[in-house]
Design brief:
alpha+beta, Butyryl-Coa Dehydrogenase, subunit A, domain 1, Butyryl-CoA Dehydrogenase, subunit A, domain 3, 11 helices, globular, binds flavin-adenine dinucleotide, flavoprotein, FAD
Amino acid sequence: MSQTASTAVGETLEPADLIDFDSLLSREELALRTTVRTFVDEAIRPNIAGWFEAAHFPLEIVPEMGRLGLLGMHLHGYGCAGRTAVEYGIAGAELEAGDSGLRTFVSVQGSLAMSAIAKWGSEEQKSRWLPGMAKGELIGCFGLTEPTAGSDPSAMKTFARRDGEDWVLNGTKRWIGLANVADVAVIWAQTDGGIRGFVVPTGSSGFSAVPIEPKLSMRASIQCEIELTDVRLPAGALLPDAHGLRGPFSCLNEARYGIIWGAMGAARDSFEAALAYSKDRLQFDKPLAGYQLTQQKLVDMALEINKGFLLALHLGRLKDAGALQNHQISVGKLNNVREAIAIAREARTILGGNGITLEYSPLRHANNLESVRTYEGTDEVHTLILGQRLTGLPAFR
Ligand SMILES: Cc1cc2nc3c(=O)[nH]c(=O)nc-3n(C[C@H](O)[C@H](O)[C@H](O)COP(=O)(O)OP(=O)(O)OC[C@H]3O[C@@H](n4cnc5c(N)ncnc54)[C@H](O)[C@@H]3O)c2cc1C
């Protein structure tokens, strides 16, 4: 049973909640959760299997996300909702309970593209792009990864050369979310003065983006290879305040934070699907839920979901207090995505053969979470960050 629009704010109908997690949330936070959950129930759930099968990203629901204040929701001014980090996380969990691809869109738009412009952009860049992006009228993408520079973005080859007042960009970016439907791309490139960021209208001559297909994960979302061939930009396209990898990494940290919550949304939805199925499905004359082996699976899943949400909330409260440290984001991202995949796969076993169809969510979530464990720092990268934190010894090279 999932909470619906008719559920009163504060009323706990969370099947996985064993610890009264909701008592830790404010009325505003619970109300936002209900709003986003209702949107997911109405706009995403009825359609997601079809979108996933057809590899369709539903551009048509983007304006509604804008109206709900979900785009750049943690940013202030320029039409953004100015929500807290915890509220952003709660929304991410609800969206990812629908599908990781939709939460990923909100993350690319808000945490990556809009954050880059808001943190590092000029006043002119902010006023030109952010209001339309917050409304969902303009779509943004974030180009950091390249075919030969993934975990180590410092190896990027895309180069921006100065030509008089202009900049001329050449290079290839890979895995860039929504690039073929985006209006604007934040592109990170080497320059004679180190790595810098550029705000590139995708209609610029020499810019092309082609979707990477076919994929077994994140099918209701688009990732592209971008080719930049002599893309000429005016001086005002440079993000004036971003110097070096600190620029993109500050945005990645925003997105990584959102994943900590989002992954638990996918886990919770997988658990709920398995719980409901196990109560209905009879084998050996009894519901599957009545067998000890099934109960152990459900209990183990619920424990990790409760712990994962507690961790997300703790890190969110730290973020809202301005006290969240980068290695703490790695704790959340590594743990919650790893546990979410395990939960989605375990939930699938309870569904038996039916679990491999698109009628049920767990295997779709598990497939999506393979991407989530890879982007925004792989499991290995976050392990190395935490290893360095514990030992003081960097082991990246
Ligand atoms: C669905 C999806 C969406 C994405 N969206 C975007 C986007 O919008 N913008 C963007 O810029 N990028 C995006 N990415 C790219 C993503 O950030 C990269 O895939 C990620 O950084 C890993 O890089 P890679 O795929 O090149 O793998 P590699 O870096 O080649 O890694 C391959 C394997 O080697 C491991 N490895 C690497 N270095 C080490 C080491 N030192 N020690 C041990 N193991 C190591 C990795 O952990 C991994 O297991 C997206 C990716 C996906 C799948």
